[in-house]
Amino acid sequence: MQLVAPLNGTLRRLPVGAVYLAGLLPLAWIVWLVIGGDIGVDPVKEIEHRLGKDALWFLVGGLAITPARRIWGLNLIRYRRAIGLLAFFYLVLHLMAWVVLDMTLLWQQAANDLIKRPYLLLGISAFLMLLPLALTSNNWSVRRLGRNWRRVHWLVYPAVFLGVVHYLLQMKVVSAEGWTWLAVIVVLLALRIPKKR
Ligand code: HEM
Q1: In 47-84, which positions are buried (b, 16+ CB within 10 angstroms) versus exposed (e)?
Q2: Rounded to whole angstroms, how far apart are CA atoms 58 and 55?
């Protein structure tokens, strides 16, 4: 992998702040489409879907960092926290799009929707699993929690899996894209299973 060494050299010079800024581009794109009136015939659904997909990209990106280092020697560890927090940020926006734009803050309607579309509960479970990870992603929590920090952060694996199942179940017929996402997640999760000595 001759390209990896110069790439790692370039990445070392890239400030983490640049990753946060770049991570806001998908949101800027959605805002741009809304302002231009190009968000489609059902803007609420389109915004909801785009935010869900963006969250998924960042979640998968975060999961891919360790295997990418192991397999190709690509060192993106410095950006893992930023990518994880961006994933959570898009997830919060995805959830807000449902609560505010779709359900228009009508809680009874939201409760009925959860009964009508139980796959939403999988999404909410995934969100609740990721919440403690986002809250403990700061240096103070890492120091305070010590070994338990790793235990808490292990929740990312079931959370991402539930997130993808939620994505697949909201389709009437699972598309090739949906199966591809599932396959990618299963491979990434399998790579994290500790090898027996
Ligand atoms: C890790 C957690 C989650 C992930 C990865 C995720 C991802 C996704 C994706 C990728 C889509 C479809 C996008 C598309 O088809 O282009 C979607 C749809 C949706 N998600 Fe999530 N989501 C998560 C959590 C949630 C939560 C907490 C809620 C709130 C209840 C939620 C509500 C919805 C809704 C309402 C839809 C649209 C369903 C429809 O059109 O019938 N999601 N989600």
Answers
A1: bbbbbbebbbbbbbbbbbbeebeeeeebbbeebbbbbb
A2: 5
Query: In the chain, what are the domains?
Result: 4-191 (1.20.120)
Instruction: Confirm or reject: Cβ of 51 under 6 Å from ligand 1.
Output: no
- Checking if the pLDDT of 4 tops 80, the result is yes
- Name residue 150's amino acid: R
CA-nearest of 155, 29, 13 to 84 is 155
pLDDT, tens only, 103-150:
999 999 999 999 999 999 999 999 999 999 999 999 999 999 999 999
* Closest residue to atom 20 of ligand 1, CA basis: 52
DSSP letter (8 states) at residue 172: S
In this predicted structure, what is the pLDDT of residue 2?
76
